[in-house]
Write a structure and sequence with these properties.
Blueprint: E1 45-51, E2 64-65, E3 70-72, E4 78-81, E5 89-91, E6 98-101, E7 104-116, E8 119-125, E9 127-129, E10 139-146, E11 153-161, E12 174-181, E13 184-195, E14 201-209, E15 220-227, E16 230-235, E17 238-243, E18 267-275, E19 291-303, E20 345-347, E21 360-362, E22 369-378, E23 381-391, E24 399-406, E25 411-420, E26 424-431, E27 445-449, E28 454-461, E29 467-475, E30 484-493, E31 531-534, E32 538-543, E33 550-556, E34 564-573, E35 578-587, E36 591-598, E37 610-614, E38 619-626, E39 633-641, E40 649-658, E41 686-689, E42 694-700, E43 703-710, E44 718-727, E45 732-741, E46 745-753, E47 758-766, E48 771-778, E49 783-790, E50 802-813, E51 841-843, E52 845-846, E53 850-851, E54 853-859, E55 862-869, E56 878-886, E57 891-900, E58 904-913, E59 920-922, E60 927-931, E61 936-943, E62 949-957, E63 969-979
Parallel strand pairs: 5-8, 20-21
Antiparallel strand pairs: 1-19, 2-9, 3-4, 6-7, 7-8, 7-19, 9-18, 10-15, 10-19, 11-12, 11-18, 12-13, 13-14, 15-16, 16-17, 21-24, 22-23, 23-30, 24-29, 25-28, 25-30, 26-27, 26-29, 31-34, 32-33, 33-40, 34-39, 35-38, 35-40, 36-37, 36-39, 41-44, 42-43, 43-50, 44-49, 45-48, 45-50, 46-47, 46-49, 51-56, ...
Length: 980
């Protein structure tokens, strides 16, 4: 009985590429293991808790009840209905729904209407639990029960953690002892849920099949035996599955919690009879009510004749595909037709089978996705280009899919190259098809594409049963119409490959630069990412399961502090920023230790050596430092020196945070939202008007005007939106705009990504007077987001016809300089070409670069380069302007408009011209841009890392740029370089 905060799963369970997390998990043999009767040894166990239901009333010292249909927060506010599972019943604690009868607990589902503040429900039932009254870690759990049959009935006996020690569901785990389908009376399932918080949760489990004459509506004994690192499921004493592979990962962690988390904490029991939900669907006309499940007893045991087994960490070893599986190619790639030379199968109707060997392009009409897939050559390789006419309503509205074979216990690496015409996101995952309930094998990985071709990768562990028809999915829908190019796709078995724990590390989502500072992640030694060393000393570092804190035991501390050392490498420290380090520490006896932040080689000390006094009490220690103004270091290290003394040291909760906000802007766009003053009409803007609403959007008197006839039934029925806003992690953004409405109303304003994760959300009240609104928010991750004004249903609906006006929308890095008045300019002259070709020059090649041919002229306030022949080099021909001032340490934004009569590429370089080799020193990486037949705005940002120079040069290269070197007419306009 899964518990989740999912709100949008209803559409996600019926389509390839979705993430249904229910437990329809017929994986492997549905009979007892190897079809052999394996009996349990009950004599090992001693009873510690039970309920025989021998009284007249439910024992309220053992059981409490969930009430209602909604998951709520601590204040009673609704989070999601149907207990996150689309259930239709309202749970009560009434003795009509749960009672004792003839020595048995009865949970009865009835067809009757109940209303609460959230809505009206057609069924009632009961859900009993021991939370707060009884919970246990490990043991034997035995329940004798009889379940009802009928479509839409979902009886379940399961367990959840007493505390969500490792994070939200399912990172902290769930154990389903038994679940039954009312419509499948001869099957039950046992399942575990684990992994990360939804939607990156995972599950594994198996079904048990009864003889046809004795189904779930007969009495059966269901048992779970739970030991460290192993769970075993029994029906009537017959072992039918064993699970010992799982993991748990917190949202702010760099690695999994050490095994056997999450199943190493206390869980409580739950028993309920649900009506409807994802598991068995909703009742139909054949389902008769009332229906009831009965429990004769619940018994919990502890081991009495032996100790619990020691957990054995799952070890990745060689994996072998079955003979009938799709085998890897000679180079190890599990993907066939990497170069798109075979026919790509188009699947545009439900029920059409995927091509089992090669690529498939899936766009099902029920989700609105519409487009085509073509093959284009880039850098000598074929790429699949998805042309998107309609992105549809979901990420999976358009998909590229290929079947692959994955083996239980294997570790896999997915890699590919991709780009788009502009910034956008795509989601990629490996998972099962419909026969396995769309179970996810990898996380749903979101990737931020740009107009530059880049390489992307992720890894995952295959913890489910071997699947020779798994799917690699590129989900391209629900996120605008920008086309996507995908190539060089590889899926490789990397089982057992070493991991470099000293590699450069990005700060964690909570800002901490220290990985595994809580000493509870990685292998069972819990020391992942840390390095321990000693020189002429006798010492050891360890972490126990009980305390989960570092223990440095020192018999001989050597002659100096560095003789015993702990360090973590690969930290990214940004120039000019303030940092604060905290950790908890104590020692067996008062003593001093040292801590410092150093460069990779330990030769540069950024923080100074901090001496920390320890006592026998665990106390928080802290120190601060500031990085030099001129140095950013992506491979710094934190070092703890314990030598020179003999007292044991204990440490925990090591944290290093950046406490100031001076980003190393690099290519951060200071003004990521464009045309917020609507001077260029609705360029960069889009809108959505649902079928239940009436609205029109236009620009009038320099303002966006949304004329609303009917606001519809949802807040999102009318949306004014700017998509593809590129935001950077750790940056504080300032959002401001002016707005008014001809009728007073509420408006919801958000900044959110394609998965509807909101980085900013505010509901504001508009009047007939133009008001200025200003807000700030901090980006937790790098992402492509959308600015949205949700203008649909609000608290005053229905409102009738009215107009909403929006103007001067600005989304900028906080304290960024004005766009309108640059701080200074590097000296671009005649960037609008109003003075013809003045200040601009062309160069058409030489004997070494090859000669190009053509002309440069100014027409209608634009620069036209007519290219008749290109040379052999990328820079033959070229258009350039010299005499530009670039100051050391300054950030610059380069912007221009361009098009070509026939699509081709242009390289943009900025740097210093030399009279000898190497002839040119670049101040930034070459920007390779794709010109189309439409006049488009291009921009990028760079930081001047060289010494200040007053004769800089901007160069537009129009020569032999691989896969984009057409001889055609190229038009430039509005060239500017602004110092930020």
């Amino acid at each position: 009985m899964k518990r989740t905060l999912a709100i949008l799963l209803s559409a996600m369970m019926i389509l390839p590429g979705t993430s249904f997390a229910g437990t329809n998990v017929k994986q492997g043999n549905g009979k007892a293991i190897s079809n052999q009767v394996v009996k349990q040894n009950k004599s090992d166990w001693s009873l510690v808790w039970s309920d025989e239901f021998s009284g007249t009333d439910i024992d309220r010292t053992k059981w409490t009840f969930d009430i209602g249909n909604w998951i709520t927060d601590q204040n009673g506010n609704g989070i999601t209905p149907g207990w996150g599972n689309n259930e239709k019943e309202y749970y009560t604690d009434s003795n009509e729904n749960a009672f004792i009868n003839d020595g048995k607990l009865v949970i009865k589902a009835k067809k009757e209407q109940v209303t609460d503040k959230f809505g009206t429900y057609d069924y009632t039932s009961a859900k009993l639990k021991t939370k707060g009254l009884f919970s246990k870690k490990y043991g034997r759990y035995e329940i004798k029960a009889k379940f009802p049959v009928g479509k839409g009935l979902w009886p379940a006996i399961w367990m959840l953690p007493e505390e969500d020690k490792y994070g939200s569901w399912a990172a902290s785990g769930e154990i389903d002892i038994v679940e039954g389908w009312g419509s499948r009376p001869y099957n039950v399932a046992g399942t575990i849920h684990y992994g990360e918080g939804w939607p990156n949760n995972k599950y594994t489990g198996k079904e048990y099949e009864f003889p046809k004459n004795r189904g779930i509506d007969s009495w059966h004994t269901y048992a779970l035996e739970w030991e460290p690192g192993e769970l075993r499921w029994y029906v009537d004493g017959e072992l039918y599955q064993t699970q010992n592979k799982w993991y748990s990962k917190g949202k702010d962690n760099a690695a999994n919690y050490s095994y056997p988390a999450p199943f190493d904490q206390e869980f409580y029991l739950i028993m309920n009879l649900a009506v409807g939900g994802w598991f068995d669907g909703d009742p139909d006309e054949t389902t008769q009510f009332p229906k009831q499940m009965e429990i004769d007893y619940v018994r919990v045991y502890d081991l009495k004749k032996r100790d619990y087994r020691e957990p054995v960490e799952p070890v990745s070893g060689p994996v072998v595909l079955p003979a009938d599986a799709k085998q890897p190619l000679e180079d190890g790639n599990l993907i066939y037709d990497q170069n798109y030379e075979e026919t790509i199968t188009e699947v545009d109707q439900s029920g059409v089978e995927l091509n089992p060997l090669y690529w498939n392009f899936v766009h099902l009409p029920e989700f609105g996705g519409d487009g085509s897939l073509t093959v284009e050559e880039i850098n000598g390789k074929n790429f699949a280009r998805t042309n998107i006419v309609n992105p549809g309503s979901q990420l999976y509205s358009l998909q590229m899919i290929q079947n692959i074979s994955l083996v239980n216990g294997g570790k896999y690496k997915v890699s590919f190259d991709a780009k788009s015409s502009d910034a956008r996101n795509i989601m990629v995952k490996a998972g099962a098809g419909p026969s396995r309930g769309w179970v996810k094998y990898s996380n749903e990985e979101s990737f931020k594409l740009t107009s530059d071709l880049q390489s992307y990768e992720f890894t995952f562990d295959m913890l489910n049963e071997t699947d020779i028809a798994a799917r690699l999915e590129f989900n391209l829908g629900g996120n605008g119409t920008n086309p996507v190019w995908i190539g060089n796709v590889r899926v490789e078995d990397i089982t057992g490959a070493p991991v470099d724990n000293d590699a450069p590390k990005k700060p964690l989502p909570d800002g901490n630069h220290v990985y595994n500072g809580t000493f509870d992640q990685g292998g069972m030694d819990r020391l992942m990412f840390w390095n321990f060393s000693k020189i002429d000393a006798l010492a050891a570092a360890s972490v126990s399961e009980e305390t989960r804190e570092l223990h440095v035991s020192i018999e001989d501390g050597g002659s100096n502090p560095e003789a015993v050392q702990l360090n973590q490498k690969g930290m990214y420290l940004v120039k000019g920023n303030d940092y604060k380090a905290t950790f908890k520490a104590r020692a067996d006896e008062p003593r001093t230790i040292q801590v410092a932040l150093l460069d990779k080689d330990g030769t540069v000390n950024y923080s100074g050596v901090k001496k920390i006094e320890l006592t026998s009490a665990m106390e928080e220690k802290t120190f601060s430092f500031t990085m030099p103004e001129e140095v950013s270091d992506s491979e710094a290290q934190i070092v703890f020196n314990y030598g020179g003394g003999n007292g044991d040291v204990y440490m925990d909760q090591v944290v290093l945070l950046k406490t100031s906000n001076t980003p190393d802007y690099g290519n951060v766009d200071l003004y990521p939202l464009k045309n917020g003053d609507f001077i260029s009409g609705l360029t960069s803007w889009t809108n959505y008007i649902h079928y239940d609403a009436e609205a029109a959007i236009a620009v009038e008197n320099g303002e966006a005007k949304v004329s609303i006839g009917s606001e519809g039934n949802e807040v999102w029925s009318v949306i004014l939106e700017q998509p593809n806003v590129s935001l950077a992690k750790g940056v504080v953004y300032e959002l401001s705009f002016a707005a008014r409405s001809t009728k007073e109303r509420d408006v919801e304003v958000t900044v959110e990504n394609a998965q509807y994760t909101r980085f900013f959300s505010e509901t504001l009240k508009l009047t007939d007077q133009m008001q200025q609104f200003t807000y700030e928010f901090n980006m937790p991750i790098d992402d492509i987001a959308s600015f949205k004004m949700l203008l649909g249903k609000n608290v005053l609906s229905p409102m009738g016809s009215h107009d909403v006006f929006i103007d001067n929308v600005v989304l900028k890095v906080k304290d960024a300089p004005s766009q309108k008045e640059p701080v200074s300019t590097p000296g671009i002259d005649n960037g609008t070409f109003s003075a013809g070709t003045d200040e601009w020059n062309s160069w058409w090649g030489d004997q070494w670069s090859g000669y190009g041919e053509g002309t440069m002229s100014a027409e209608n306030g634009e620069l036209k380069i007519a290219i008749d022949k290109i040379g052999q080099a990328t820079y033959s021909p070229q258009i350039y302007q010299k005499g530009l001032l670039f100051e050391h340490g300054s950030s610059y934004t380069v912007e221009f408009h361009a098009r070509a009569d026939f699509p081709r590429k242009v390289n943009v370089n900025i740097g210093k011209e030399l009279s000898t080799e190497p002839w040119f020193i670049s101040y930034m990486p070459t920007q390779t841009l794709d010109l189309t037949t439409e006049m488009k705005r291009y921009y990028f940002t760079f930081v001047m890392s060289e010494e200040t120079y007053e004769d800089g040069k901007i160069v537009f290269e129009l020569g032999n740029i691989l896969e984009g070197n057409a001889t055609t007419n190229v038009t430039l306009d509005n060239v500017s370089i602004q110092q930020n």
